[in-house]
Structure formats: C-alpha cells, structure tokens
## 1
Amino acid sequence: MYKFLTKKNLSIIFFIFVPIMFLWHPNWFGFLGVQPYWPLLWLLPWSMINGSISGLIFGLFLGLILDSLTLDSNFTQMPGLILCGFWFGRIKLHNDFLVGHFRYGLICSFGSFLCGTLYFLQILFENFSDSTFLLFIPSLQNILAEVFLTGFFAPLICSQLLRVFKFSRR
Amino acid sequence: MLDIRRISNSRWWHKKRNWILFGIFLFLVFVRISKGSIYKDFYYFISKPFWPGQFQKEVILKSIDQESLIKINLLKKDNLRLREILSLKESSDNDNISAAVISRKTGSWWRQIILNKGSKDGVEIGSIVIGPGGLLGRVDNTSLFTSSVTLLTSPESKVGVWVDRIQINGLLIGIGDDYPSLILYSKDADIKVGDFVSSSPASTLLPPNIPIGIVQSVDEPFKAKKTAKISLLAKPHVIDWVQILRVKI
C-alpha cells in the first residue's frame, strides 16, 4: 500500500477527487451559491511540477470529464482548462514561503477568471438575441464569486497538493 | 546501422507513455460521448451513505401548503374549463417515481441535480421533475442508476408558461441565477408583482397546470417584449426528495 501511494498514483487519486468535488458541490464552501473552481486547484500544482505539455494534456482530460458531467451540451470547459494547464506549466516555484502561497491565490484567481469568461462567452454566442442583456449581471456575479473563492482556497489547497505531488514524485 | 536504430527508437510512437496517454484520451472521449454514465454510476455508489434523510421539514411543509392551495384553485378552474371543452393534454399521475437528490449544483453556470433513480427504474429523458412547491426541471440525461435534471434556472432551460390572472402565455428562460426570467411577447401585458405562473396548457414539453413560481419584479418593456423575474416555488437548493412524472403528451 505504501509503495502504491509513494508512486505517481497519489496525484491520480487526487485527480479522481476533482469531479467528485464538482458533483458533490458542498454548500459550506460556497459563496452566493457558487463553488471554487476545483479543477484549477489540482491543475496548478500538477502543471508546475510536470510542465506545460503535461498541464495541457491533463487540462484536456479534466475538461472532457467535467463536460461529461454537466448537461450543457452546447458549452465546454476545455478551452479554459487547456489554456490554464499550459500557462501554469510555465510558472516556476518560488522560494519565499509567503510570496509562494499568495502567488497560488493570485494565479488561480486569474485562471478562474479566464475559464469563467470563456464559458460565459460561449453562453453569450449561443443565446445571442435581444434578451442577451439579461445574462450579464448574474454571469458577472458568478464569475466574480468564483474568482474570489478559488483565490481564497488556492493558497491552502495548492501548497498542500504541491507537497504531496513532490513527495510522490520522489 | 546503429545510428538508424537509435533514430527509429526515438520516434514518439515507440514510447509506451504516449500510447498510455492516447489510451486515456480515447477512454475519456468515450466517457464524454456517453455523457459520463460510468462516472455518475460510480458516484451513485460512493455517495450512497450520504443520501438525504428526513430533515428540512419546515421548509418543505410550507412549500407543500403553498403548492396545495394554488393547485386546488387551478384545478377548480380547470374543471370548469374541461366541462366546456372536450379534451386537454393529460399527465399520468399514477406513474410517479420518488427519488432522492444525490448531487446538487444550484450555483454558478451549471444548474442541475442528479437523482438516484435511473433508466433501470423507468426514468426517461424528457420526464418532468417536481418537488415540494412545484416544477423543478426536466430529465435531460439518464444512466443506469441515476438521472440528471436541468433546472429551470439553468441557462439551457426554456419552457412555455401560463400567467393565470391575465390569461397569457410566456417563455420562462434560465439566466444563470436563482430567478429565471419570464418573457411576454406583448408590450401591453398587464403583469404585476405577485402574479402566479404555472406550466402552459399549450406547452408540448410539460403537462398543464404545474405550479412554477410567482412574479417577483417586472422590468421596463423593451422592443415589444415585457420581462419579469420569477421567484420559484420549489427551491432546488433545499429539496432532498423529488417526484419524477412520466408525461404522456
């Protein structure tokens, strides 16, 4: 069992947890009914350790899984996650403990903003009509709440995941 | 000779890792095409110990009272109308299936719930889901053990509704928050705050007279259209048990 956990399998176990959290949608993590964008919290440490290409591939995998769990067949989360996976892979680890932690928050917030905006643009193009203006305020609220929550939880979760992934890599 | 072998060995298709990644990619494409059935069934089993029990009684009882009152009123009117007209679209009340909510996404973009009854229990795509209070949404996807419901608040949801007081049909569209928008294609429609909205008798998707919500605010008319915010009677973020209606339309 120990041998199993010390290999790369540990990161894969956490990978499986991403869609479970996405489906579970625990209310006590929520703000205005919105949840943190869980896939980014896994993708950031993974990409930082394994590089851009790996980040891009697993961004695609996460997008595929999450798309299959949501009913919106016209919209996809893949472009945002692929872009974030690639971008996160280019970010280097920082030595300073505090700066490093706050950087995770900032990076994940920006990633969540990117994913949220790309998703919103898809909804906007799909429903383009006179009543499009109805979508703006709730969508902005969704994006901002998600950005805030993702940035809030990222320093805690990403730093722990990064430690676990590094440990399992060794 | 050795050089050639070295070059040919370094091609991407000679690396086992790439084939594994490609295999995972194909598997995930399969999962995507099957709309995550495997994953949802897996989630069904691991979430089984955490399914909702008997709580939130007060909220539900209040909604049931409200629903019953409105339903009685509507049924009386409907009865009178039915005596005059010969036939209407019918819903089959005997085919109700009770189900528990095992996953709930009621915030952000994705507004859906997953129920613990699937195609094995006879749930069909297009079935209507009602909770204490009224209509929640429609079943959009089923797996063997689960079914996924698009809520009325989802940006993908568009249903025909009926405003009873002014006897007019409208379109209820989800806009990604808790209050879907009602669009009336008449600038002069006399809609007021507090008006009751139910499913439309003219709808081809829903059976008639299922309570939906109450008008919460009315916006200014815009380009021959009037829009209003609707407060739903059934609250998807607190409901743990629902009824699935198989509709005959």
Note: The first strand of chain B starts at residue 96 and ends at 105.
## 2
Amino acid sequence: MRNLIAFFIKHNFLFVFLVLQGLCFVLMLRNRNYQGSRLFNSTNAAVAKAYETSANTKAYFSLREENDRLAKENAILKNYLKSNYAVLPLTEYKKNDTIYKQQYTYIDAKVVNASVNRRSNYLTLNAGSSMGVGRDMAVVHPEGIVGIVKAVSSNYASVMSILHKDVRVNCQLKKDGSYGPLIWDGKDYRYCLLTDIPTHARMKKGDTVITSELSGIFPEGIMVGTVESYERRQNEPFYTVTVKLSVDLKKANHVYIVKNKFKTERDSLEKLSQTQNDD
Amino acid sequence: MTTDILKNSIRFVVLILLQVLIIQNIRLGMYIILLPYVLFILMLPFETPRLLLLATSFFTGLVMDSFYDTLGLHTAACTLMGFSRYYLLKFISPRDGYEQGLKPVVEDMGFVWFLSYAGSLILIHHFYFFFLEVFRFGEILRTLLRILLSSIGTFSIIYLIQFLFYTKRRNR
C-alpha cells in the first residue's frame, strides 16, 4: 500500500493529467447527451455579456444597411396610409366594392448630392425612372417637404429643392386654411417666405404651415414649417410670412418621392378647361 | 512573482477576448480554424510549477469551451498541451537549464527555437482537438488537412502577435 502511494506521489504529474483528461471525456460525453453543465456554456452571464457587447459593436457596422432597409419598409408602409387613398363616389364603383383608391404612392430614395448655399439649389436622388420616378413629383422628408423632381435618368433623379428661385409650392396655414405660394428669398436655407396670405388671417408665431391640395404636386397636409414672423406688404392687403422650415435640408438623407396617380388626369382636365376658356 | 501572476492574468483575458471577439469571426472556410489563444499556455514562464501548468491549461480550456459551447473539447486539448509542454521543455532545454529571466518568446529564444517549440505544441493541440471534434477516423484525410492548415494559420497569427508586441526592447 505504501509503495502504491509512493508511486502515485512520484508520478503525480502524470496522474493529475490522466484524471483531468478523464474528466474532459466525461464532460464531453455528458455534453453530447443532454444540455450538460449549466455553468460552462455560452448562456453563462459573463460569456453572454461578452457576446452581446460584441454583437452590439458589430451592429454599428451595418447601421447603414439597416437604415436603408427601414426606409424602404417605411415607404411600403406609407403606401398603406389611409390618407393616401382618395374617396371615390360610391355609385360608380359599387360593383367593384372599391371605396378607396390609392392616390399617392411613395418611393424611397437616398440623397446622394445636395446643396443649400446656392441661389437655385438641387438635390440628386438615387432613384430614377426605372423605379417609377417621373417629372414634377413631390419629394418629401419625414419632417417636411424637400422639393420637386425636375429631371430623371434611369437610376437618378434631379430635384429642385424648395430653396430654388423658380419653385413655388402652395402652402396653407393649418389653423384656418389661408393659402399662398411658398418661395425662397435666397437668404437663409432655414427660412422660406409664404406670400399672399390675406390680412384677415389671424396668426401668431409658431403656427403650423402645411402643404395645400392646391399645389397639385404635394399631398395635402404635409408639414412645411412654422410661422417665424410676418409683416404686411405696403399698399396690399397681404402678409408676407417668414416660415421656419421644419426639415433641415442640409441633413436630409432619406427622402420619399411622392407619386400622384391622378396627376395626369387632373392636369389634362385643367388644360382642357383652360383651352376651352381661351377659345 | 506577483507581477508575473498579474501579467499572465492580463494576457489571459486579452487573448481570450481576442479569440472570441475577433478571431472567431474570421471565417476562412472549413479547413482553417484559428486558435491563437493557445499562446497563453505557450507564454507561461519557464519556472511554472508543472501542476500549476496543468491546472492553468485546464482552466483555459474550460473558459474557451464556455465560449464555444463545446464542453470538454478545448479543455482536453489544452490539458494535453500543458502536459506535453513540460516534457518538451525538458527535452529541448539547454544542458544547464534555462537562464533566469528568459521567457519562451521569439525575442528571447530566437525564431528556430520558437518554431520548434510553438510549432510542435500547436500541432499536438490541434491534432488532439480536431480528432476529438470529429470523433471518428472515417474522415481522416480531411481532418489531417484541417490540422495542418489550422496549425500553420494559428502559428502565423501567434508569430505576428509576438512580432507586434514583444520585439520592442530589442530596438531600444
């Protein structure tokens, strides 16, 4: 017996090694059969924390793709908004059981180039005719309006920003609906002027300005900005209102192009009545 | 002595994190699996008591197994590696033992020594590891190829780490 113990002590290194190896095999076999040890796997608090931190860090590298994906999803969801559907007279469509017909569809696009410091500013979007973008479509941002499509190629669209000397968008005060064209005076990219508001309109600083149906391009009710100040023009019963734009056009990254499905119909009708008038 | 323990503990944490947070995400296909965390066992001081060496190796493997959900696999390979290290160092030691203050790194011992030392231990570790992992001899050629390529990969990374972090003193 003493000899045996002496033998073990002499070769303790080998025996400890063999015991540990045996332990490893027991662990391995147990791990094969069922969940194994609860302590030594990746649900262990420290291990899980390390992996979580790693995953969180990795998530930062794919933020761009994630953003694109969400913007796309938003565009799809916006297509389902009830306000994009025009109510059609029941009588005519009763057979089809169609009450709502979609008037506005949204196409998501990314701003690939933009300026705010010129007198006539343009944006370039990475969506073109291949995605259904056409001339004179409205471009909006979740926070406000951006501009109007001026030209399209198959994959890009050039947009006249609302900071453009030739762009006029009909806007109205949300409060009482008095409307007028919104223009840019070329001074500050954060402010536009809402002209031709009749003097009987009551307003105060902070009142909301939204797009008007009259613009024919933008859907009604899209946020434009808030009233910053207003003054009466000389000898005219109109106010010129300085509007603080709600969207920061310097930072607009993702925008939506709004397609008015009834635009052709409306335009041709308006044209028709005008020519008849002229005759 | 205390600084040695501290240094090795820090190296342990850093290497484990390197392995599980970075190296694990490098996917080079079926045949190359990089396990440079074994550098920790390689770099334990020459004077480490042999039982402590075994215990440390065992613990290292256990931690790796917790991260990889392969309970026992890394542990077995690491324990064998620690065990072999003791005999290997004895076998390739100079006639009058290792000089005081030297560490088992390229800088102190030279490239040829490090290649034979680290190379053989990595081979032992990987050989055991990959055979235990597949647990059958049917795929022996593929397993051998994995062992060879992975060992080369692991050694390259370990050499790179040594090159980056342990060659400063010579330049001074």
Note: DSSP finds eight helices and no strands in chain B.
## 3
Amino acid sequence: MIYFKYIRMQLRSLAQYRSTFWFIIMGQSLTCAAGFASMTMMFDRFHTMAGWTYAEAALCYAAVFMAFSITECVARGFDSFSRLIVSGDFDRLLLRPRALTLQVLGSSFELTRLGRLIVGGTILQFAARNLGVAWTADKVIVLILMILSGVVIFFGVFLLGAAMCFVTVEGLEVVNIFTDGGREIASYPLPIYGKTALRFFTFIIPYGCFNYLPLLYLVGRADGHAALYALSPLIGMLFVIPCAFVWKAGVRRYLSTGN
Amino acid sequence: MSAVKTRTMSTIKDIVRPYVSMFRIQFIGQLQYRAAAWAGISTQFFFGFVFVMMYSAFYGGEAVVVGVPSLQMIISYQWLKQAFLMMVVLWSQDSDLLNQIVSGHVAYSLCRPVDLYSLWASRLFANRVARCALRFAPVLILAFLLPAPYGMIPPPNFGSGLLFIVSLLLGSLVAVGMSMFVYVLTFVTMSREGARLLIGASADFATGLIIPIPLMPDWLQRALALTPFPYVADLPFRIYAGDIAGAAAGAAMGVQAFWVITLGITGWLAFRAVLRRTVVQGG
C-alpha cells in the first residue's frame, strides 16, 4: 500500500514537468526503434544470421527491451543507488520503520520507460506473428514467463550493482557492462557470441534463460528435454536469490558515508 | 609593406589567443579524469566485442559477401568507432555550458570581450580531443592484438592513415558545429534535457554509429549523403579502411571542409540572433 503512495508521489512530481516527460519518452522510444531498425536493415542485406531468422532475432530483441524497461521503470532506485549513498539519503531510509527494499524501490519510479515498453511490445507482437508458431496456451505462458523472468533477472543485476556501491560509494561504470551491456548482448541470440560468452550469460548471469533458451522451445528447436527449455525462465528467476543475499550483506555492513 | 604584414599577423594572433587558451585549459582539465577514462576503456572494449561478434555472425564466417563491404572493413570500422567515439558522438554535451544558459550565468561570459560562439566551440573541440587522447590508444592496441577475423588491421598505406587523421579532426569539427545548435535551442527552450534527448538517438543512427552507413539500404545512404552526418565519423573510418582513397578521398574531404565552414557560419549567426533577444533578469 505504502508503495502505491510512493508511486503517486512520483507521478505527481512528474506532472509538473510535462514537456520534459514527453521529450524523454520520445527520445527513449527512438533509441529502441533505432536499434530495431538497424537489425531490420542487417536482415534485409543478409537474410539470416548464423541460422537465426529475422522473426527469432526480433523476438529476442523485444523480450529484452520490454523486460529491461519494466525493471528500469520500477527499480530505477537500485540502478541509481550510488546517488542515495553519496547524498546520504540512504541513512534516512534506514531510520524509518518500513521495509528498506520497498523504500529504495519507491525512491524513484521512471514512467518515462513507458516509451520503450510500447515500442518493445509492438516489436514483440510483430515477431510473434511472423515466427510461424501455433500459439497454444503453453507457448503463450512461456512467452509471458520470458518477460517476467527478464524483469526478475535484471532486477537481480541491479541489486548486485547497488550492493557494490556500499564498497565503492561512487557508482562503477563497470556495472554498465552487465546492465546496458547485458541488454545489448542479449538483444541478439546469445550463441552468436561464442561458447565462453554463452556459458557466462547462461550459468553466471542467466540472460540466456529468459531469451534464447525458451525461444528454442517456442520454435520447436529444443533438442532433448523440451520441458527444461520451457521452464528455463523460471530457473533463471532463481538468480535473484543470491543477489538478494549479497544486497542484505551489504546493508548489514554499511557504515554511512558521513554527511 | 612588411610592417603592415607583421601588424596584421600580430592582430590575428591577439584575436585567436583567447580561443587557443580556452582549448588548452579545457584539454589539460580533461586529462585529469584518468579513472573515468579507464572505466570508459573497458566499456568501449566490451561493446566493441559485442558488435564485432554480431557482424561476424551476419557475415556467416565468409570474408566477402557479394554486394556488401568486406567483413574486415566493418570490423575495423567498429574498432575505430569504439576508440574515437568521444570525438564524434553528437550527444556528448558540456553540461557546464547548458547550466550557464539555464541559470543565467552566461551573462558573465557575455561581458568578456570575446566571441562567445568561438569560445564555446573551441571548448567543445578541446573536450572531444582530450577525452579521446586518454582513451583511444589502449582500445586500439587491444583491437590490433585480437586474432585475425576479429581484430583490426592497419590502413592499406601511409597516405590513407594520414588522410584519416586529418579527416577525423575535420569530422570532429563537423560534430562540434552541429552540437552548437543544441546550445542555440537551449537558449530558446531553457530546458537542459529536451534538445539533447531529441538529437540523441536519431543522430547516432544518422552518423552510422548504430549500424555502419555502408550497410544501410541504398536509398538511405543517398539521402544521408546530402546531410553533414556521414562526414562526422563514416568518412574518416572509410578513408582508414581504404574504402575511399585518392581523388575521391580528397573530394569528400572538400565537402567535409564545406560543412565545417557552413555549420560554423550558420551557428555563429544563430548564436547572434538568440543572444540579441536574450534578456538577463538581474540576480
């Protein structure tokens, strides 16, 4: 309940800067659309990409962008966590008798990511129609799970990045490699990056679990245990558990930055 | 006769001096941010790897696909982009200058006996060159060390390499000329975000930083050729790869110089126009 109050507050303050809001939404949608346009142009020239079709790649792209924009919208507070630490505002959150995670989540709500979500949704719909898949109930569920799982996994990465701020105070640009970089790398099917990168992004940071593994199931290219491919989004969500522990450990050791 | 000549020489020196000083101050200042540079280098290198793998996958392991530029050229193009990104991106803005406009502190700068447009343009150019000076070498060295299909190769001959450097500097000036219009817009809208975000994505796309211009559809390439966008990064990168050489390179660099001058003059006029209607409200 208190979370919705936070959101209402954020939305009200947003309403004071309406033109900026629309500018940002437009800029964000353009970024997302430009990336997809370049993917379209590449497939226009080459027709396939190492055995992947245009619709398959488009689905990867759409799933990643939708998941990432939802996570950024809701959990921006963790993504820009160094700001809370540097300003000392985090100390104030610690003093309040409310759940800490909830307060950090409520500290920022980026409705501007809506633009990307809409563009991503449009691409997803386009990809789903051109994939040549009969959309039975189980496949629709897998598709929805893909996006949900993506949101949870990106959230886990945000938590890790935030936990690192307890040590470094300043936000580390290296974290961007796993957030923005992860988004970039996962917007094409992961196997094209070679075995090492594929393993890393399947077993360490499981971006593959919400994107190309279930995709293989959807298009019927999963060999062996098809059910395992279908359930991979759920398995990928487990990633958030160790991340939450790291975050908790970070909070416990936190000794303010002084003010 | 010669006395007149020396006098004009010294006046020119006096006129140019403040802008050269601005360039030097800004350049030395930027060199202090070494930690940021190291972080930037690792990110640039990672993204370079992602792009190179992606293009290699499209080319399907074959080095030459009919009707498209060679994979080797595209890979060199990518690494040059990662190494010299800071010189050519249009979204890199000086937030100090934007703040000066919005907060009104620009009034102090206007009191000085210098041309504001030239002062700011030299400052932006210095920022670009200095940020790159710190970053480009490690990225390029790593890119040269990578194994054959993924690494970068030297330019085909010494001439191409030399023309590349000149053309890259000119390209950076084109970028400065274009980004000066963001400050003009900020004078009008008084909003820091708006103008910057609007040019962001579309400008990246048009300069060939999202997908190389030679890989775009022909109609789009023809349309872009009429704008200054391909002369920012695409031209220098293609000169490096030997894709544009000899007389063609000379002619293209002529057009590049034309854009530097045209953007400079129109930007200067636009600056004068907005400054004339600027009202500073005390403070």
Note: Residues 2-277 of chain B form one domain.
## 4
Amino acid sequence: MTLLKTQIGRRAFIKNTSLAGGGLVLGFSILNSCKPRDVESMAVKEMPEEWFEINAYLKIGDNGLVTIMAPNPEFGQGVITSMPMIVADELDVAWKDVLVEQANFNAEEYGWQFSGGSQGIRRRWEGLRMAGATAKQMLREAAAQTWEVPVVEVKVSEGVLTHKASQNSAGFGEMAAIAAQMEIPEEVSLKEVKDFTIIGNSKKNVENQKIITGKPLFGSDYQFEDALVAMVEHPPAFGLQLKSYDDSEVRTMPGIVDVFKIKTLEDNMKRGYFDTNAFTDLVVIVGNTTWEVMNAKTKLNVEWEPISDSKFIVDRFGTEMEVHIPGGLESTGVHYAKMNEMAATSGTTARKDGNPETAFKTAAKVIERSYTCPFLAHNCMEPMNFFAHVTKEGARLAGPLQAPGLTESTVAARLGIPIEQIDIELTRMGGGFGRRAYGHYAVEAALISQQAKAPIKLVYSREDDMTFGIYRPSYQANYRAALDENNNLIAFHVKAGGVPETPLFANRFPAGAVANYLAQQWEINSNITIGAFRAPRSNFMAGVEQAFLDEISEEAGKDPIDFRLELLESAKNNPVGEKNDYDADRLAGVLKLVREKSKWGESIPGVHRGVSAYFCHNSYAAHVVDVVMDGDTPKVEKVVCAVDCGIVINPDAASNMAEGAIIDGIGNAMYGNLSFVDGKPEQSNFDSYKIIRHSEVPKNIEVYFVENEIDPTGLGEPPFPPVFGALANALYKATGRRHYHQPFANDKPPLVG
Amino acid sequence: MAKFSLNINGKTQEVDVDPNTPMLWVLRDHLKLVGTKYGCGISQCGSCTIHLSGIAVRACMLTVSAVGNQEVTTIEGLSENGDHPVQKAWLEVDVPQCGYCQAGQIMTAAALLEKNPNPSDSEIEMAMNGNICRCGTYVRIKKAVKMAANSES
C-alpha cells in the first residue's frame, strides 16, 4: 500500500465549506459561470436530487451516483473515459454508477489542462488516483463517525461502505453529505496494482452514444442565440501579407453584416511558444449563415504584398529567443536542393562518442544513405473554429483547444482584459494531432466578437484550414554506418536537419550501443510556419533510422530483430556515454514481444515482412508489417504491434489508439504530402491532399501490450513513428526497392529509355 | 431567397434560403441538425453523408432546390433511440476516436446494408471509400459494418 500526502482538493474543500456555512454543499458550480454541460449518461440510476461535492474532480449524489470530471481536453485519445476510470477505481465505485462530465478550462482547479505530447495520463496518474482515494477516505470516515466504529474497520466495495462487526452498511449516497464536511485526510493510501478493478478493464468511450446519434459535441456544433458566423481571408502564400482590400461587392451580398480587418498579434508583441502564426493580418467577413459568408468570401477583392525580413521575440516557457523570419516566396524544389547543400556541410555536433572519423576510415564496409520527407498538414476532420462572445464584462469562449491555458493568456493580452474575465468551455475536438495546441483561431474569434460587438462563431473552410500553416516540417537525414570485417557495427553517424527545424534526437538509440557515434544537425530558416504534429520529429527520425538499421543488418547478414537485440544488449551491459534516453531492456522487450506474436521467422508464402521499434514520449513500440503484392501493387495486409506504456488504463481503447496510429503512419508514409510553389501550398483540400482510405488499410491489426506495473506513460504518439520504418522495410522485401523519400507512393524509380 | 418545404426525418420543415444553399448548411445553420458534419465541401470526405430517398449522398454539394419532396434522413433521424443495427454495432465495437466523421460513416454503412445486407469485404471497402477517418478507425468500422450485417440477416 502506498501512502501519499494529499495535494489536491484542499482549496476546493475550504472554499465550498465556507460557502455552505457549515451545512451541505449543494450544486456544483465551482467551475465557472457557464452552466455545466449535460452529463454523459451511462448510468442506470435516476438523477439524484442533491449532489455533494467532495473535491474538484468528483461529486456524489444522494442516491450514490458519482459524477467525475474529465480534466483534459478530448481529441480522440479517450481521456474523457480513461481519466475518470482512474478516479473511479481509487474511489471504489461501480463504473455503472459513474457519470462523466468534461471540465471546462479552470487552471486553478485542474492545473495543466493540456492534451499533447502523450503526457496526459502520465502527468495526471497520481493526482487522479489521489482524488478518488481522498474521497473514499472521507466517505469511510463519515461512516465511521456515524456508526461510531474505528475507520480502519470500514470497508468499501462498489460504492457501498460496510462495517462487519456492527453489521452496518450504507451506499455512498447516504454518507455523501457527511463526507463533504469531513477534513481532507492528511494522507491517503493508494491501491496496489493487483487490486485495481476498473483500471485495466476495458470501458467503452463515454461519449459514444452522443457521437453515433449526432448530438452537438464539437466546437463547430456550438449553439448560442443570435450568434453570427465569421470567416477570415488569409494570404494565399507564405511570404505575402495583406496590403488592401475592396469589400464593396461583398457588403451588398445577402446576409452579410460586416467586413473589417483584424490583427491577431501586434508586431512588437512578445509571442508565446504556441502563438505561431504567419498570417496575423486578416480580412474578416461577418454574416448570418455559413453559406452566405462562404459565398461572400469568394467575392472579396484583396491585394497582397511581399513581406520583408522580420524578427520577433518568442518566450519559450521562460527562455526568450529572437526568431528571424525571412522574406521571399519559397518552393519545395528549392527546399530539397538547399537541404542537400546543408547535408554536405558538417552542421553542429550534438553528440560525439569515441572516434568516429578513425572508425569510418578503418572500416571494412561503410553504408551511406539519405532520407527526406515533405511538409504535412494535420488535416483534423473538424476544421479550425471557435465561438466567442466578448462584452464589457469579459469574454466567453468555447471551442476545440489542446492547450487552453496558453491560448487564454494570448487572448487576455490581445483583448487587454485580465484572465479572470475569460471563460473557456472545452468542446470535444474533431481531431487534434498537435494542430489545436496553436490557438490563433480562438484569438481571432475573440477579436472578431469584440469588433463586431456580437457573439460570433469563427469557421474555417477546409481550404483555410489546410493552407494556414503550422505544418509538420520537411526534413532530411543522412546516415553512415561502419562495419568491421566481422560485420560488427563499429561507427554510426547521423546528420539531420530541416526547414525550418532539426529533427535530431542525439541521445536515442542506437546512441549508447555503438562505440563511435556522431550526431550532427543543421537548420534552414523559412517563413512557412511549423508546429507539433503527432510525435514531432520522431515521426521522421524513427522511420528513417529503422529503415537504415534494416540496411545495416542486411549488409551484416543478420536477422533485423537479432541485430537490434544485440545492439540493445550492448547498450544495456556496456552503455556508451551517459545520456542515453531510453531503457534498453524495455526497447528490447517490445521487439521480443512483437517477434513472438508475429511469429517472426516463419515464412508465409507471398507475405513480405518488415520490422521496426522505437522509443519516444516515454513509451516503447514495435511493429511487424506484412505486405503482399496485388499484381504490381504492394498492399499492407496485416500489422502486429507491441507496446510498452506501463500500466494500461483502458485496454480496448488503447488498442484502438494504436490501430489508428498504425493506419495514420501507413497513410502518411504512403501519401502524405504538402508541397509549395512560390509560397503557395499546392494542396488545399482532400481532392489534392490524399488521406488513407478504407481500401488502403490493413485487413488486420493486432496490438499487444507488455504487462508490467510501471506507472503509465503516453500512447497517442509512440506507436505512430516506427510505422514508417516497418513499412519501408516490408516494401523492400516485397518489391526489392528501398524507399528513401516520403511519400512512398510518389517515390518512383526514374523512367528509363 | 426562396421557400422550401422539406421532408426531413419524417417531419416537414420550412426554410427560406438561397436555392443554391447546400443541404449541409440548411441542416446545420437553419434547422440546427448539427450531426451532419462539414469536412471538405467538395464531396471528398463523406462527413456530411445523409440519405436522400434511402440513398447515401453528400449534403455539402446537394443544393436545397434539388431535394424537392424526397425523404431526407440525417443521423438524428436514423433511428428513434440510437438503436439502428449499425449504431448498435458501432457501440459494441467502440469504433470512434475523435468521432467527427462517424455520423457520415454510419450513414454510408446504413445505406449500404439497406441495399446489400451481406456485403463482402471488398463491397464494404468500395462503398465506404468515400468516407475519410483521419484518426484511422477503419478496421473497427469494417468490423462494425460486418457485425451489423450479421445482426440484420
């Protein structure tokens, strides 16, 4: 049993007891002035007449129903279900008696409400357990006091408190009123892993019923009386800015209310790390309905002009950096040529072990390869949108945000009002993938509402969404490997860079496993904005590193899994350097599990296999991809996946996440591509930007989790990056061709003849 | 502007809109039936799939003036209580991740099974290929479609 000092709930408790004047705490309005959304009903009990709030995460009804708040924004990763599961398990309530409610943004109560970096469960694990355990302890104390028995003798199971000796028994609902007045315990005990009853047992997504019946859930569904619709016009190309506009035709169109311009960020404003925005000067059209505004947008005459070189200060969580933005209209062909030039320079050295120069000179064999990938757009199914109602009293906002705390401070700065006057309601997000950590659209909505003096819903068209920027960067990585005469890997050199950032992780595998190791990097400045995209940088490095290791193992005449395991054994027993940021045993563990589950080594006629394994975002994932040939076309038939993310909260939902990551990986590796000509994205909708579809996905995906009792780590990102490598390796086995350039579907051999 | 009398989910609904307005926006903005989603506006993603006389169509490129008195069914009207076999299978398989595309997926699947109660894998793929799921829940979608087919037959 783990005893932990309680850190949560005390403030909420004090506030509420004082509010209630020593009596019962009624209602649950601590969040903010907005009325709580409908609770997710999956319970069979009737709604209670009274709720008793125990702490910010949960309240108990007089009939034993428990409402648990889901603190983090939901974008498909399932935290609206898995986080309440953690609270419910420590509380010892039956899951059927749990209602879940999405918390709105409230940093005071819920701390870091951020969805991204696969950090949600990892960061909240202890706090959520404590919320449940604290409440359970208060209920036990309430029962002990009522029955006049020692608290240690009060047992709890599935929402029922019992005292064996005195034969007392009561549901949570009966003790909730007294429990709400109990002192917060100084320390609480948390369960042993073996005692979990809800964690580790699959529960269905609590919002499924609403999703499958089309209930309003998403930002774009948000309803507010008399809200107007707004759309913005941004420059058609990076390197351009607004010069002037002529709205004479637009103003007379039906349903159009106003046309004006806004400036999302002032030129001299210090920017936050997630304030990324190439297009701060926008023309706004406000009207009655979406279709009317969409039509008006096509009739707007705007003159654009080139930007000049500029610079601004970015506050990267306390560290200020000056960022230089070059003028000019950039093109993909030039990017690749420049990346090749940079790859020929030495770059800056991020890590060096041993004497790589000498090792390469004395090597029996040297393998040298170069890999590239294009920019990618996130393409969340729900385009960017936000609701705002800014009045003298403050700002009411609602919509899809991954990082509401960061967006709130920018909104406050731009509106010139204190953050206390801003309420943000968190809606379900139609995808995120990193894109909605950049809340410029919420700032735009707020400024538009302020200027229009009306509640407005800002809507992006798909084209607006795809061409606004904040993309996965384009990268290049050059690798060299040296083998001695016994086919041992004696030196490894990675040099990586990109437009505009380097993707390098200098301390990841095979760092630590090779005596002579060199990691270098370079960057090319750009005016195209970039941002986090599902497993930033790893989403390139994993694939190319794992494809390169495949070539080395082939050159060394070794099985690709055995080859990796040998290296990991060496990294474990004789680690080179001290900063290796992976656990060699756990990385080997997923490889061994995927080897077993895929029956690696057994030859299946017509099936061509590739393997990969990678560590990122604190978790480990390995894949075996099976490719079959359908005529001349390779098709992914099956993927077997092994993941080590510690304790798995909601196994079936976790499998769903990994299945999605695998399909996303295959899709982006095969087809994902955003290219530029003179600063203009060449793809602006799904007719030109290909997303993987039903007929292109594997028939079967098997997901296996390493069983251990390690505190849980992330899952949304880790299974994604290695897919690119396993696929490339399987394609090679199927077609005899190695793929060095993503997307693979465009990576055709040159025409001969 | 023009007045249209529409037959939506078994009810007559009057709207006064530009005749070129796509049904997607009539449903979402005028009738507040927001289960039908906007994803691309050019019939490429399937998020806006509805049934027009039982056939799956994309509401983003179907003008209100083309509907006439044909029966329109949206996700809100697919079943009384969310208990259409396809919806039940979606719950059972726990298909959704973000959920945004799922109404369109369900509407396409329901129309397919209406026409072809026992589709093969490739018939499912063909019918569903116009519906994008960015989260990649395709394997579960196919499993749910098959489950619904088996429950109906």
Note: The longest helix of chain B spans residues 138-152.
